[in-house]
Each structure stands twice: as structure tokens, then as C-alpha cells.
Amino acid sequence: MLRIFVAIVVIVGLLILVALQIEDTSSPMFSEIGTLVVDGNAEIVQATPDGNVLVYTNSQRNSLDIVGLADPSSPSLLASVELPGEPTSVAIGPKGNWALAAVVVADTPDGVAPPDQRLPGVLAIVDIREPASAAVISTIGIGHQPDSIAVSSSGYELLAILAIENEPVVVADGLVTKDEGPGNDGDISLPGAVQIVAVNPESPGNWSVATVELPASLLRDAQMLFSDDPQPEFVALSPGKHIVAVSLQENNGIVLIDPVAHEVIGAFSLGQVMDRAADLADDGDIDFSSTYPADAEEQALAGTRFPDAVAFSPDGQYILSADEGELPLTGGRGFSIWALDGTYAWDDRGEIEQLAAEAGLYPDERSARKGIEIEGITAGRIRNRDYAFAVSERGSFLVIYDITNPPAPEFVQLLPTGAGPEGVIVIPDRELVVVAAEESGSLHIYQLIPDGS
Q1: What pLDDT is recorded for position 15?
Q2: 261 and 242, same structural domain?
Q3: How many whole angstroms separate alpha carbon 80 and alpha carbon 83?
Q4: Is the pTM of this model over 0.90?
Q5: Residue finishing a domain among 227, 248, 266
Q6: Contact by Cβ (8 Å): 337, 390
Q7: Segments in the chain below pLDDT 50
Q8: 339 forms bridges with which residues in the sheet?
Q9: How far apart are the C-alpha atoms of 325 and 231, rounded to whole Å?
């Protein structure tokens, strides 16, 4: 408990430091107004459409936890719903009545015999109409190792779109090894895919599962890297709900899917970032005199974006990618923006890392690996302006850009979060942003403050 208290004190101190150093008070700014330290951890968070309830995944406790947000300055835990395994992601139906969680049931620790790759994962349907008494009403068998989920609707049915990642399970001498690199000859995992589950929660016994394959030929044609091993990572639903963007992190690409027709309608590679100033040495000295990726030739895939989270711009015309990286000295060390046909529109060109350094939040110990590692990203329209919100897993901060003109974003603000943020959402009608910080086990609520006051 003392450690948590000290961490919060440090976070508050850093918030004041950042506010003094880099805020432009001539325009509206965001300020942290509430924090909730959780029992376990908080990874992926979502909100009901009215913004009054949060639901987050707690992988340490194998639960889906429900938080009241009627007063965003004082969030409170309402319920903790036990799940049959580790939740990897959660989404909420358009009416806010149901939370759907992707759950991994079969673990694959190293040094043991591998599990049957055909064992299903689980889609858990949770009734949150009365948040304080939330409960699982049904579970549906899905692909072996689900990751991200998004939810749409069609008539009375909910459509759950799931990335079935099937991370590598590399076996040597009959035992699982620690190697999780893509393209390994000893990988026995099934190819990843996207599944679309149609279910009416009022009659959960009736459901269907459609699998959208990601064939090697499609990925090769799109110039992706490991075409036999798709590993879909993150799914995002367009504002019009007629297109799903799926990141294939290890393949450095994005595929677009029609969730109603159950077919791939586009695929493109994210390529490599252009040269930018960077600190590439873990030496205790923050120095942006190196050039990335030009000075990182020892890594064959240096500068390859390897996107994690993706999001649509509020008008649905662009896709934002969190260019986290995968191998050492890879990643974009920031985020990028793309037209729907894969045309490059913008990236931050290393600006975010330098802003983090100015704020005292640059993780020098990660310099020789992937830098700040932008992992989560989302976007929303508030007061007729479009904003992008991205979180740095290693720098433990939230960065905000005005993307009203997506090919020419403008930096707005950088704010500290809890340690190791992964999930980030925006609640436009309440002018709120919520960050889930996995390492510190905390939720952080920010609000847009008029006129920078």
C-alpha cells in the first residue's frame, strides 16, 4: 500500500511538472481529475455509451471489473465478475447493456508440454444493465487464443469481432520454449484469424461464429513479413460500423474487414519510418544525436512500425496506428496516420520522444530497444475538434494531438499516467479520457478544461 501511495505522489508531482513545462494555455487543455487504484491490474478499459460506467479487464484476478463514473473525480468499484480464464479485451454493446470479454482459457507456459491448440477460447457475455450486480449470462467457444474485441450490432443481435491471435507456441523436445518470435520452424500454433460472433443476449443459446481467414497469399501480396503467421493483434470498428481495421503486429500490416459480409476488403503494409533524431543508447544520458533507423543497421528490420493498437479518426476516413515495434530497434517510436487505402498521411517524426524527454518521462533504459513504445491509441471529437490520444507503455504518459486536419496534426499536450499504460478510451459527450495503467494497476480520468484553466 505504501508503494502505491508513493507512486501516486510521484505521478501528481510529474503532472505539475509537465503542466509547467509543455502546456500551451492558450487553447483548451486536459487535466487529470480522478484516479482509482485497483486490486490486481487494469489493462483494457471501455465505457458505456452514456459514460457513467467503466468496464476493465483484470488479468491478475481473471475478472471483468465494473466501475461507477457518475462522478469522474471519484470513480468507485461496483462489481468484480469472475471469468473462466484470463481476459484479454472487452467491448460494450451499442446500448450499454452488455459487456463482451475475450478470454484465454488454455495457458502456454514454457517448460511444459504444449496444450491442444484446438482448445477453444471463450467469449463471455456479461449483463451490466445493473452494474453493481453484473454477471456472466453465457459463454461461447471461440478460437484458441483470442486477443482484441470490438462490438457492433445487427438488428437484435450483437456482432463481436475478435482477433484470434494464436501467438507462437514454439516446441523443442516436446516442451514449450520461451521463443515467441514469428516465423519459427518449431511453431505449432494454428494460423491466426478474425472471428465474428453473432448473438442475441436476450436469447444467448442461439449464436453463430464465422471465421474470416487471413490467407498467406493475401499477406504476401500486401508485402507483409510473416505471411504464414498472421497473428491479428487489435481490432477497431469504424464510426459508421461498416469497416473493421485489424492490426497484424508481427506482419507490420493492417487488414480491413466487412463485418457483415465476413470478408477482407483491404490489406496494406505499414513499411518503415523515415529517419528521425533518436536516442539509441541505454547509457543514462538522454541524447537525440543519433538517427533512427539509419544508425540501427545491425537490426535488419529497424524502423519497421509493427503496429499494436489501431483506431479510426472520428470521421472514419483515416486509421491511426500505435507503432510499438516487435523486435529490438524496431517500431516507429510514435504513431502514424493512414488513408483507408493504406496511403501514408503523417507520423510524428520523433517529436513525441523529444517531448517526453523535456517532461522528464523519456525511458532511457529502452533507448536501444523500442524507445517509448506507443501501445494504445484512440480518437474522438470534442467541442468540434478531433483529437488523437496515445499512451506510451514505457514512458508512462498520455500524448494528445489535434487531428482535425489528419495530414497535419498539431501537438496539444503530454500528461503522465500510472505505470505501463495499455488501454485508452475517450468519452466525447462528457469530455473525458480514461487510461488503464497495467503495471501500477490504476485507472486515470482526464477532463477537458475550458480555456486551459
Answers
A1: 45
A2: yes
A3: 10
A4: yes
A5: 266
A6: no
A7: 1-25, 452-453
A8: 318
A9: 14
Q: What does the pLDDT look like over 366-416, one tens digit per residue?
A: 999 999 999 999 999 999 999 999 999 999 999 999 999 999 999 999 999
Instruction: Clarify whether residues 415 and 449 are in a common domain.
Output: yes
Q: Give DSSP secondary structure letters for 70-135.
A: SSTTS-EEEEEEE-SSEEEEEEE-TTSSEEEEEEE-S---TTSPPPPTTS-EEEEEEE-SSGGG-E
Q: Which three cell numbers stand for residue 341?
A: 487505402
On whether both 410 and 338 belong to a single domain, the answer is yes
Range of the domain at 18: 1-55+64-75+270-453
Q: Scan for cell 483470442, then name that residue.
A: 146
> Looking at beta carbons, which pairs linking 173-178 to residues 24 or more positions away fall under 8 Å?
174/113, 175/110, 175/111, 175/112, 175/113, 175/114, 176/108, 176/109, 176/110, 176/111, 176/112, 176/113, 176/114, 177/110, 178/110
User: 39-71: string of b/e by CB count within 10 Å (b at 16+)?
Assistant: ebbbbbbbbbeebbbbbbbbbebbbbbbbbbee
Do 237 and 133 lie in one domain? The reply is yes
Please give the grid coordinates belonging to residue 58: 483484470
Nine cell digits for residue 169: 507456441
Q: Helices (DSSP H) in 181-320: which residue ranges?
A: 216-221
Q: Looking at the structure, tell me whether residues 47 and 116 fall in a common domain.
A: no
Asked if 357 contacts 286 with a C-beta cutoff of 8 angstroms, the reply is yes
Query: What is d(CA 453, CA 451) in angstroms, rounded to the nearest whole number?
Result: 5
Q: Are residues 354 and 380 in the same domain?
A: yes
First to last CA, the chain: 33
Alpha-carbon span 92 to 13, nearest angstrom: 34
pLDDT digits (tens, 9 = 90+) for 9-42: 344 444 444 443 344 445 679 999 999 999 999 9
Judgement on whether residues 372 and 427 belong to the same structural domain of the protein: yes
Instruction: Among 227, 244, 266, give the residue marking a domain's end.
Output: 266
Residues 229 and 312 in one domain: no
Total domains present in the chain: 2
Q: Which residues contact 319 (CB under 8 A, 6 or more apart)?
A: 236, 245, 254, 310, 311, 312, 313, 337, 338, 339, 340
Beta bridge partners of 446: 32, 433
The pLDDT, as a whole number, for residue 451 is 65
Residue 16, H or E segment: helix 2-22
Residue 17 has a pLDDT of: 43
